[in-house]
Amino acid sequence: WLKQQALQWEGGPGTALLMGLLQMLVDAWLGTTAYALARRAGIFAQPHLEKVSGETLRDVLSRYFQLGETSVDRIEAARQAVVKATSRLPLSGLAGRPGRPSPEALVRARAEADRLFRQTSKSVDDVFRQVRSRMGRR
Questions:
Q1: Which of 26, 31, 6, 29 is nearest to 16 (CA)?
Q2: Which among 22-36, 83-97, 102-116 has the top mean pLDDT?
Q3: DSSP assignment, residue 120?
Q4: Is the distance from CB of 32 to CB of 68 less than 8 angstroms?
Q5: Are 99 and 89 in contact (CB under 8 A)?
Q6: This prediction's pTM
Q7: What does the pLDDT look like over 35-88, one tens digit per residue?
Q8: Cβ–Cβ contacts within 10 Å for residue 36, how many?
Q9: How many helices (H) and strands (E) are present in the chain, helices listed first?
């Protein structure tokens, strides 16, 4: 029903509501995934859901935290699959020794890493600038 209303008012308040809900869901997913990563790194402790009153709320929170744990498990599995797949790739040899990257490959990798770092830094700066401007409006 909500989607139909949003489509009827293209560009109207229904679209804004739908986009807001979608943004909230993405933010909630990122939040629970970040919490799971931080918990596994030892930054945060396991949540103490037994202190939450109300069975329904405790169940919702449990499912929310489990979503983050499942997401981290899948991300880690994908990372390990990439590492395993790339470890089988032949690397060009250095002085006839296989398994070591060539100097040219190292230079290319360094240049790509620098480019990605600059791009990511710019993106982070843009996000912080947007957050600061929104906070200034309030």
A1: 6
A2: 22-36
A3: H
A4: yes
A5: no
A6: 0.53
A7: 999 999 999 899 999 999 999 999 999 999 999 999 999 988 888 888 787 777
A8: 21
A9: 4, 0
